[in-house]
Design brief:
The chain has about 260 residues and is mainly beta. It is built from four helices and 19 strands. Strands 6, 7, 8, 9, 11, 12, 14, 15, 18 and 19 form a ten-stranded antiparallel β-sheet that branches. Strands 5-4-10-17-16-13 form a six-stranded antiparallel β-sheet. A three-stranded antiparallel β-sheet has the order 1-2-3. It is globular, with a radius of gyration of 19 Å. The N terminus is likely disordered.
């Protein structure tokens, strides 16, 4: 079975990751073992409102792509969908693979040519994450929350965790013996979003809420899929490295310093 392809197999950073992308499927592998896949489920879904302005967009529904096209050039793969359930909303995504590092960086752009509002974008959706021995999901619920055996524990419903409260960071990681996989959003503006994980499809993804008005466009912050051969600290270290590149530590005032 599919789970056996990943379960129990040690990962090697030297072999790296690979992504096979198709219009209605994807396969993510590492060290030639399957990490996650999707067959028939869309890579991206939008949240759409018929309201013509963002202030009136109080009700919305999920809409999948009507058709999608993919292509590949070297270590880059391209995804494009020109409409979602008949609405002229264009979504383009570029996936850049850093094979030795085990990383796939996603650049996502949306053009709203419809008369309604694109409230949100779900994806890229990492689905059917394969079991690891002693596997657990680490989510940033306040200081952190460990969920053991998550794909059985959370099978009934997809869980949603809102950032920046109660989620304290913009990443989550599934780890077990021999490695794991993480999803990050590198958003320096730190705007409202949701982590979505679990359910029958064993998903790990983010829901972003750009509220793109008619005629508007949106460029997503970078979304990163990371596969690693160690433990969840690899994901934490990767997120910390990104954060420390731009975030400044608050400096105490001179009066506070004088008292210390």
């Amino acid at each position: 079975e599919a789970n056996a392809l990943f379960a129990g197999n040690p990962l090697s950073l030297w072999d790296g990751c690979d992504l096979e992308l198709a219009p209605k499927s994807f396969h993510l592998s590492f060290n030639q073992h399957q990490v996650a896949f999707s067959e028939g489920d869309p890579l991206f879904v939008i949240l759409y409102s018929d309201a013509p302005d963002i202030w009136g967009a109080r009700k919305w529904h999920m809409a999948g792509p009507d058709n999608a096209a993919v292509s590949r050039r070297g270590n880059r793969q391209f995804y494009s969908a020109d409409s979602f359930e008949g609405k002229p909303v264009r979504l383009q995504a570029e996936a850049r693979m850093d094979t030795p590092a085990g990383e796939i960086a996603w650049d996502i752009r949306v053009e709203n040519r419809s008369a309604g509002t694109v409230v949100g974008v779900i994806g890229p959706c990492l689905r059917n994450v394969q079991d690891r021995p002693s596997g657990f999901l680490a989510v940033p619920n306040r200081p952190g929350h460990r969920i053991d055996d998550p794909w059985n524990t959370l099978v009934k419903n997809v869980q949603h965790l809102t950032y920046p409260v109660p989620a304290s960071m913009q990443y989550m990681a599934y780890s077990g013996d021999g490695g794991g996989v993480a999803v990050h959003v590198f958003d320096q503006d730190m705007v409202y979003k949701q982590l979505a994980f679990g359910g029958e499809n064993r998903q790990m993804t983010f829901i972003q809420y750009p509220f793109v008005p008619p005629g508007g466009a949106w460029h997503s912050p970078e979304v990163l899929w990371q596969v690693y051969a160690t433990d969840w600290h690899a994901a934490a270290d990767r997120y910390r490295a990104w954060f420390q590149k731009w975030a400044r530590r608050p400096q105490p005032s001179p009066s506070i310093k004088a008292r210390s």
